[in-house]
Each structure stands twice: as C-alpha cells, then as structure tokens.
Amino acid sequence: MSQQRDGHPSGVADGPDFPDLPEATVARLPEYLRSLHHLAETGHDTISSDGLAAAAGVNSAKLRKDLSHLGSYGTRGVGYDVALLIEQIELVLGLTKRRAVALVGVGNLGHALAGYAGFASRGFRIAALFDADPSRVGEPINGLVVQHIDDLAEVVAAEEISIAVIATPAHAAQMVADRLVAAGVTSILNFAPCVLTVPDGVDVRKVDLAVELQILSFHEHRKSALTALPVVSAARRVKLPSALGGKPALNGEAVGT
C-alpha cells in the first residue's frame, strides 16, 4: 500500500497510444495547459518553446522534452500551434469531458473549495458535497446541497464519480478515504494533514498547507541568515597566535600548519 503509485495505464479509450509519462512531466502538463489557455484567450495562435517555457516557469529544454513525450515537437521558426497543443494535453490529462468530483468535509476550507469557480474552467465540476455534521447537512453551497456521508456510496454511483477531495479534520480522513474507496472512488486529493493508506489502484495526492508554509519559512530563515553574515574587508588582517608563527592571514582565512 502506498500514498501514491508511479504506474500509468498502458491505454485509454481515447486512443491506443497513450504515453507512459514520467511523474515530473505529468506534474508540469497542467502548468503548460494553464499558460496555453491564457495565450489562446489573448489571441495567440502560436508560441515558441522559449515563450511557453517562460510563461510556465520552466526552462525551454525541459519543456521541449516534456512535449516530445506527447509527440509534439513544434515547427522550426514557427513554434507550437496553441490550439493543437491544448487539445493534445487535455487528451492526455483526460480532460476531454468534465469530470465529476465529490467533496467531503465542508468546514472553512471545504466551504471555500466548494465555492471556487475555477474548477469548471480546468475540466472539473463539483458534483456532490458531503459532511457528517448534522448541522451542515442540507446547507446549500454554490448550487449544491450538502448531503450526509452515509449517502456517499449511492451518490458516487449515480454521479459516476471517480475523483474525490477530502477536506476533513485529520482524525476523520482515513475513515472517509475507506468509504470513498469502497464506493468506487479511485483518485483522492487529500487536504487533511495526515498520510492515507489506500489499496493498489487508488491514487492519492496530498496538499498540506502547513508543510508548504514551513518550507517557505526555511527559505526566509536562510535568507535572514545569509543577510546577517558579517562582511569582511579585503584589507582586513587577522594576527595569528605566536604558536602558529605569528603570520597574518588575509580576509579572515585560517592558515594551515
């Protein structure tokens, strides 16, 4: 059992030549797609690899290698066809139809996720909301009514849901994951601050906001430490003890014996 599996299916209904992509490439494809949609919305028909790489925040060599896995190499002197590349990436990511998603846990974070309008433009729709708190069941949020967790299996089957988001407290997340898997959900986005145990064949992506902030805290701490380092003058001389010969050292560098 694992938090996330590395394998990919060898084929999908959209075509027999579904590429077996490296995980790092899969992680970057949504960034390329976001940038391409923005380019299309602003009237761009083509884009160079350098231009798309800059928009997505990666180097152009990495971008070209990623897109070569899709069989897309661009045209010398012209670049990539924006509309065609959008179509290729959406096909590989399985976004040719809008996928139904279940959201479990409508506390502060879950409520915000349920009301987020950006999912629709990325190929997803929140199809069902669940909570175990009776005071929240029946609450309308963004056109949906919160349902009790006990109704999960029936709704997942009716809405053909295979992807779910867990936004519950940590202590409830594993129980929710078990119920989702039992209902037929095979992909989970977990916002709860815990590691889930799932069977083979179920993929889990973990989003821990506190961890991300801790990583940023490290970078801030490092920047502060570097800023606090004393600046040593090039002309500074340090007199060594007589036991080392009394010879001076430049720039504070130690002299070996």
Characterise this structure:
The protein is 39% helix and 16% strand. With 257 residues, it is of the alpha/beta class. It folds into 2 domains: 23-92, Arc Repressor Mutant, subunit A; 99-211, 3-Layer(aba) Sandwich (Rossmann fold), CATH 3.40.50.720. The chain has a 7-stranded mixed β-sheet, sandwiched between helices. Helix 2 (49-56) packs across helix 3 (60-68). The model is unreliable at 1-16 and 248-257 (pLDDT under 50).
Name the structural class.
alpha/beta
Helix content: 25-40%
The end-to-end span amounts to 57 Å
Please give the CATH architecture of the largest domain: 3-Layer(aba) Sandwich
Strand order of the largest sheet: 5-6-4-3-7-8-9
Strand content: 15-25%
Tell me the number of strands. Answer: 11
Number of helices: 9
Shape: globular
CATH class of the largest domain: Alpha Beta
Q: What is the CATH topology classification name of the largest domain? A: Rossmann fold
Count of discrete structural domains: 2
CATH superfamily of the largest domain: NAD(P)-binding Rossmann-like Domain
- Calculate the mean pLDDT score and round it: 85
Task: Please provide the ordered H/E string of secondary-structure elements.
Answer: HEHHEHEHHEEEHEHEEHEE
Q: Spans with pLDDT under 50 lasting ≥5 residues?
A: 1-16, 248-257
Largest sheet: 7 strands, mixed
Output the radius of gyration: 26 Å
